[in-house]
């Protein structure tokens, strides 16, 4: 029986050949000389060589959030995911897992599946009709008279895939980072009560931001700029990331309201047996994570102008709408909000050194009916606007980073998670380049 090709890393020689050994040494030196506590030097955001290194050392080696099982709910459903030079097919299999296959035909390299989503049995390349099983094995190649052609040698190349609490992760490395198992054990109890096995996609937004992927992630990892998010400020406390010592005078009342809401949320979580505490290991492990349950302002139920629920249907086994948000950050490319009435997933997929695709997906209970249980425009309004505002902020930074006048500036205390992300990134790249 033929089997698909096992995961195999992209050769380090490919990067050396692409940018040259001297340039590779320059890039390694830049990582070694990075100044802690400051933003990165301009080339980290603008240089094609560093982008190529990022794709090999970060996106080619680490677990990347690719989507949720709600996007591929039935066997045969697939979605395609592209980042940097990589193109993958994520195909739901009969066992409930996900096959991750490189979307590159083994004949002459054509894309096998060209639609972003769909349903398929076997995978048929549209160029010369080479046909692959859902596991990637080549089962048909129209090659009359080709003596000695062994179909077993030409299956689609595979990547590693994992489904944890309804989230789908992929890794292109031959040997994925081992501590992801430990991280999965951390976040699964937080997510399990929301039961992503019983949700559906309400809406998906894709934005191409004219900015380097690291600027997208830096912007996400702080709320120093949250005055620029008026819709989000209705429900998300603008004191996020602050402490008693760093709260400015004009936010003192908000800070006290936040502390009261936090205590009320803790009481509810204790009542329902929901994990609450902050787990923050963003740069102290290979698979960096931050997760917690945090209160929302107003009614404390959802991302609306009043804080009231946006869907009438509770998720999973939850018994109360007023549970704030379970917020999770995972390195290198994702962040999430799990609420009692819906879930929002965010993923950043680098396109090139100056562009990043940000995909946002809203998930509701699978029996929720649009127009009856939720209003789609109201459900998506806050984060649609917030994403557009963040797109503008990222693009402002990208233009600035490309200026001859740019030089790295210091991160403020409230931006400690930005420093944690950059510290994680630099350490991973130093390990890879070494």
UniProtKB/TrEMBL annotation:
This protein's name: Aromatic ring-hydroxylating dioxygenase subunit alpha
Keyword Iron-sulfur carried by entry: yes
GO MF annotation list: 2 iron, 2 sulfur cluster binding; dioxygenase activity; iron ion binding; monooxygenase activity; oxidoreductase activity, acting on paired donors, with incorporation or reduction of molecular oxygen
Domain Rieske: 63-170
Top-level taxon in the UniProt lineage: Bacteria
Matches recorded under InterPro entries: Rieske_2Fe-2S (IPR017941), Rieske_2Fe-2S_sf (IPR036922), Ring_hydroxy_dOase_asu_C_dom (IPR015879), Rng_hydr_dOase-A (IPR001663)
Cofactor: Fe cation
A Pfam family recorded for this sequence: Ring_hydroxyl_A
Lineage: Bacteria, Bacillati, Actinomycetota, Actinomycetes, Micrococcales
Keywords of this entry: 2Fe-2S, Dioxygenase, Iron, Iron-sulfur, Metal-binding, Oxidoreductase
SUPFAM superfamilies reported in the protein's UniProt record: Bet v1-like, ISP domain
